[in-house]
């Protein structure tokens, strides 16, 4: 037996068809029947007199949207007392014959005493107005709402309980949104409290318990409890070390310290947790979230139903491994330990990983074969993505070579002094390289990315969170196991974490307190989605790889076809593959032009004609839909330009600032192109495919950045470092350098220490 407002009742009164709550947030989108509980702090204004109309309108809009999707929505609401208080205050002022004062000025009103308003009278005055407001708002979305008032005794009487249950089911059957509230006008007098400056408020925990009770009685799939805090914290939200609990499990109460109640009501978070756990036991999933925050209240309900990481989710199923928040903290601590190792020790870890890639080749390829077979059987991957997913002996050998390059070049990457200045006598300043912190690398269909990025993170002393695509799950699992095996030789296994939970990428991007830099590796759509979702965390990368090759009038016949073939056909799925071929107008209908077209046909490259190119042809290939297209396959666009200047302008207008090439024997023309094209990589007489960390001698890359801040082009170890300043003094204070002080600034540049070039 449990209690609802001190009255006992059976724990689970009605059997539930499915009997189980949802185990994961991602399943919440399947919720059919939903109860939304609006706390007093959500419904009332900040002055606690009257309703927060804008917030309420937003909630009604979200509930209506879900109702019109075919879900069955119910609302448990507070607010009658606050609305009634506003009405009664107004009536009292008018009844005290102040109409003349209203015309003569406001000064007389300020001195008038407002009597103490009793909560039940406020509720009686506010119920009808509150319901009229709900009805008006729901009418805007062609939805009907119905009011149900209940008291504690209604749940104590078996017949009344059954009547209530039947009424609610009938309303839901007719597509009506029931709006339920405690009948505060007839409840016993509450204990006095000072929440509303003279107004005794019905304890808000009554509505928490009411919502939980109704959710279980009605076999509801989801209960959303909206309050004025983000969710459940492990300690009072205002305290320094308070952390939002993403998922709360039964039995975790011991790890939580409850603070004071909300600004309105008596229940507080402890009452919400008790109600949530009771509902969870009855088979209803529960989320406690903030319904007052102006940045999220407009979509908090729909976000929860979509499975986004909002508030605290109550679940009976504990994951086998750590949560992503715990993994982030482990990566942070492990990264700091990693950064404190000697350079030789970090290099030793990477050398060991390179050896493991070749020693464990058969196990890796077997796991990769499983991924390929599953992807092909499900038919969910396009051919370019299947190619990226595939591993081979040659790929693993190349990976091992690249990792050894990283190890060899990483000896003085962390802690390298890049500037020394003597500020004053015995006051020396140094700027040194340090790790960025914790990196989140999100990649799809690229298992070879995992050891590359891990090696770069190890070399730069960064903690690392890896989120791979599910299509490469088997490959990623064994590769991550090898990374941790290599890290274990110096006790820093936790520095690199593979996220295997059902975390949505959008939710990972919001972990701004755990992650310092996000690096997406995948399709342009993935990168754009991450750039849009990232809140407060910088994103390094490029959304598209629209690479150009411009063939000048002075181009060498021998070089043109080789460079174009390599740029387009060597690996068409790569982000540094040729997508648009620009040809000088004077080369049309020449033997060189014919050779280019013949080579592309032999290589089975589908050609799309740009608008100008199409105008020169009687029978042209299909005209390109957009000049900003990344094909990622054996396709390319051909366009005609009149000069190198026009080629540069075309690249600036339609390119993605990734990699662009000129083929010419004219040095002056080439230098103009190199200096004027504003891209991360600009080449002369070389394939676009050279835009790669391994080929640049960086060993590997975490990606290619087209941004203009911090790192640009292939990003290796240097791009994963930032700096800090070290000042060494001897009892120095700023006042000594004032106009009448005893010291003067020198600001002398000092020589840098010798770099280790071995």
TrEMBL record:
The reaction(s) this protein catalyses: L-glutamate 5-semialdehyde + phosphate + NADP(+) = L-glutamyl 5-phosphate + NADPH + H(+); L-glutamate + ATP = L-glutamyl 5-phosphate + ADP
Record's InterPro entries? Answer: AceGlu_kinase-like_sf, Ald_DH/histidinol_DH, Ald_DH_C, Ald_DH_N, Aldehyde_DH_dom, Asp/Glu/Uridylate_kinase, G-glutamylP_reductase_CS, G5K_ProBA
State the Gene Ontology BP annotations: L-proline biosynthetic process
Alphabetical list of SUPFAM superfamilies matching this protein = ALDH-like (SSF53720), Carbamate kinase-like (SSF53633)
Question: What is the source species?
Answer: Brachypteracias leptosomus
UniProt keyword Ubl conjugation present: no
Subcellular localization:
Mitochondrion matrix
Ranges of residues in domain Aldehyde dehydrogenase:
324-588
- Tell me where the signal peptide lies: none
What pathway does the annotation place this protein in?
Answer: Amino-acid biosynthesis; L-proline biosynthesis; L-glutamate 5-semialdehyde from L-glutamate: step 1/2; Amino-acid biosynthesis; L-proline biosynthesis; L-glutamate 5-semialdehyde from L-glutamate: step 2/2
Q: What is this protein called?
A: Delta-1-pyrroline-5-carboxylate synthase
* Gene responsible for this protein: Aldh18a1
Q: Which domain of life is it from?
A: Eukaryota
Does this entry carry the keyword Coiled coil?
A: no
EC number(s) reported in the record? 1.2.1.41, 2.7.2.11
The record, for PANTHER family, names:
DELTA-1-PYRROLINE-5-CARBOXYLATE SYNTHASE (PTHR11063:SF8), GLUTAMATE SEMIALDEHYDE DEHYDROGENASE (PTHR11063)
Upper lineage = Eukaryota, Metazoa, Chordata, Craniata, Vertebrata
